[in-house]
Specification:
The complex is a heterodimer of chains A (499) and B (204). In chain A, 45% of the residues lie in helices and 22% in strands. Chain A is an alpha+beta fold and 499 residues long. The chains are: A alpha+beta (499), B alpha/beta (204).
């Protein structure tokens, strides 16, 4: 039997696919390593045997016939074309391969090279790949976020359904175009470009966040928060970017509207509170002014006498100075209430805060012919609060307490108390000796616009509660002992470690 | 009746306002005392003390208005000047309806205060003089005998002695004697003065 030339054998070994050479009588003349793997025979066991041993029974007769026909000068049915055939593994299992056969030139008698490609594996792999591709597509399209992949130059390679919907464009109009020029709102392009560059420059797989508007086909800008990650090839070179974006336009709009509404409510309530207390405040301011006028006029009269009593006059002048400062203090308090200041957190002594606003609270007491009692515990830990807001809540609660108890002719004493509760936090309570709350009102008092007062706006408690909530606490109601209502909140004690 | 010096009493819960008012009044030569609450003032209220009251309408505990009503119930005649803030006009109106002498809005010019205080003190003097006058007439009336009282009634109705005599069934001479006693006891120099006295003590 003839053997292939060394060149042919070397070629055979270098081939990835299984390759077998047979002579004109169908005997195996060469059997490469891949063929060994494919059929489970060692080359030494296969050489010299008929190729038929590798054929599935159904194809064997057909193969022999085919070869004979060719050698008899008939049509080459297989040469140069290749077809699927069933073959037989050494362990008896059948499988499909794609077989192509060529006649090795300059061989006589002729030798044939058979190339066998395991199609079952390839098909399986192809099918798996296809399935995965579909699944990925599904993932992409199911995602509630916008997904966009671009190449290094920023040209879009892939967009999902969500992105298509947000952008209001056809996928085909986006893919192949520059992401930034095609989709990003003009004002935000610089931002988007910088973010894009930053992601490409950065190493690692850590996604980077950014926010910018995209412009939809109908010209509407949507605000998107993006997470971007670089796509890398096997050599860790960035080949593009994957962006995942969430459309937060509506959310942001709602947030800012809610925020504005709260601000509005806050200032309305401040104004309402101011209006209700205007009488008390003007009285409060009038006191020092009246005293100043009296002292000054008395001084003028005394100075016109032949022998002015200097110690009395100088005492009166000191009083004038003192009363002017008192008036200034009152104005300062009022101003701090009227200003629409931003939330400012400071570490404060709650008792100090209460004492600061005591003058205004006392004027409210005076308007209602009542008394305000302070019952402040010693050595309380500091709390982190917006002082003005907490004072506003206290004024609101004290005002309500006086109104509630005044109507019923009860003793109108309102008490502000502070104490340390079991876990070390600070409780602030405002209690009165009025009738307390009717059972059915207990659940509703914190609802906006719920009021038991004929002239109430029903906003005071709702706002107070939202302010206290912003301080990580809750404004609550309990019945007061022995009678009346008690509103209280517990502020977290300031921990040294928070510093 | 004693004639103690007239005293302005300042009732205000605000130390500064109270003390500055006292000093202002003192600088104008008016004697003033202070009380820091309506209750404190009522505790040492003396109906015989002449003067006037300077009263803050808004005070914790008993308000100025309540003090005024309490004084009215006690039959006190002391004039009351209310001191109000600028938001207290309705209160001032109510005070005036209950017989307040006047009211002043804080802060005020010293002359406005002193004018009012002077007028209030003058009114108090008048009140007290009138009061003393009617008291004296009542005392004199009480000293008359029943017959003299009858003669007085008829004479002051404008009846002549003759008619009085016939009304009472006595002689004209007897009427003349009673009438002379009445004029003497009542310290009246003429019939006209006697009529005036009777109108003073018996208005309704």
């Amino acid at each position: 039997m003839s053997t292939p030339t060394p060149e042919v054998l070397a070629l055979l070994e270098a081939t990835v696919d299984a390759a077998v050479i047979v002579d004109d009588r169908g005997r195996i003349a060469a059997f490469n390593r891949s063929a060994e793997e494919m059929f489970g025979y060692r080359a030494a066991d296969a050489l010299g045997r008929n190729i038929g041993m590798l054929m599935a029974p159904a194809d064997r007769a057909y193969h022999d016939g085919h070869m004979r026909g060719y050698l008899a000068g008939g049509e080459p049915r297989i040469l140069g074309r290749g077809r699927d055939v069933r073959v037989l593994h050494r362990d008896g299992s059948e499988f499909s391969v794609f077989l192509s056969v060529g006649r090795i030139p300059n061989t006589d008698p002729p030798m044939f090279l058979g190339h066998l490609h395991d199609t079952s594996l390839r098909r399986k792999a192809l099918a798996t790949l296809e399935k995965e591709r579909q699944l990925n597509r599904l993932y992409l399209d199911l995602a509630q976020v916008m997904l966009v992949a671009t190449d290094r130059a920023g040209v879009v390679r892939l967009v999902n359904q969500r992105a298509v919907r947000v952008l209001g464009k056809q996928s085909a109009d986006i893919v192949g175009s520059s992401w930034i020029d095609c989709c990003v709102a003009p004002d935000d392009r610089a931002t988007a470009r910088n973010a894009f560059r930053a992601v490409l420059m950065a190493g690692g797989d850590e996604p980077q966040g950014c926010e910018y508007h995209v412009r939809s086909a109908d010209g509407e800008d949507r605000f998107i928060t993006w997470r971007c990650v670089a796509l890398r090839d096997n050599n860790d070179v960035a080949t593009g970017i994957m962006l995942s974006g969430e459309d937060v336009t509506d959310q942001r709009r709602a947030e800012s509207e809610a925020h504005r509404a709260l601000e509005r409510m806050n200032s309305v309530s401040r104004l309402a509170t101011m209006g209700e207390m205007a009488a008390g405040i003007s009285h409060e301011l009038n006191q020092p002014l009246a005293a100043i006028a009296n002292y000054a006029q008395a001084c003028a009269r005394m100075l016109r006498t032949p022998t002015p009593d200097v110690p009395v006059i100088s005492g009166a002048i000191e009083q004038i100075a003192g009363q002017a400062l008192r008036a200034g203090e009152i104005i300062k308090r009022i101003r701090s209430l009227v200003r629409n200041e931003d939330v400012r957190r400071e570490t404060r002594d709650i008792n100090g805060l209460i004492r600061e606003v005591n003058t205004l609270l006392a004027s409210d007491a005076r308007v209602h012919d009542g008394a305000l009692a302070l019952d402040l515990a010693d050595e309380l830990p500091p709390v982190t609060v917006d002082g003005v807001q907490i004072q506003q809540v206290l004024m609101n609660l004290v005002h309500n307490a006086f109104e509630a108890s005044g109507e019923h002719g009860a003793a109108t004493e309102v008490r502000i108390a502070t104490r340390r509760v079991a876990n070390g936090d600070v409780e602030v309570s405002v209690s009165d000796l009025g009738p307390g709350l009717p059972r059915d009102a207990e659940h509703r008092i914190f609802e906006p616009f719920f009021t038991t007062k004929p002239t109430g706006t029903g906003l005071g408690l709702a706002i107070s509660r939202s302010i206290i909530k912003a301080h990580d606490a809750r404004l609550e109601y309990r019945a007061n002992n022995p009678r009346g209502a008690c509103f209280y909140f517990v502020l977290p004690a300031f921990q040294e470690s928070q510093r | 009746m004693k004639d103690s010096p007239q005293t302005v009493i300042v009732v205000d819960d605000d130390d500064a306002v109270r003390n500055s008012l006292r000093l202002l009044l003192k600088s104008a030569g008016i004697h003033a005392e202070v009380a820091e609450s309506a209750r404190e003032y009522l505790g040492r209220f003396d109906a015989n003390q002449g003067g006037c009251l300077l009263l803050d309408v808004r005070m914790p505990g008993m308000s100025g208005l309540e003090l005024q009503q309490e004084l009215n119930m006690r039959g006190a005649t002391i004039p009351v000047i209310f001191i109000t803030g600028n938001g207290d006009i309705p209160m001032a109106v109510e005070a005036m309806q209950h017989g307040a002498f006047d009211f002043l809005q804080k802060p005020f010019r010293d002359q406005d205060l002193l004018d009012r205080v002077q007028r209030a003190l003058a009114r108090d003097t008048e009140n007290r003089t009138r009061l003393r006058h009617t008291d004296r007439i009542r005392e004199r009336l009480a000293s008359l005998s029943p017959r003299e009282r009858e003669v007085l009634e008829l004479v002051t109705q404008g009846k002549a002695n003759k008619m009085v005599a016939s009304d009472l069934g006595v002689s004209q001479r007897t009427v003349e004697i009673h009438r002379a006693h009445v004029m003497q006891k009542m310290e009246a120099s003429s019939l006209a003065e006697l009529v005036r006295m009777m109108m003073t003590v018996a208005p309704p």
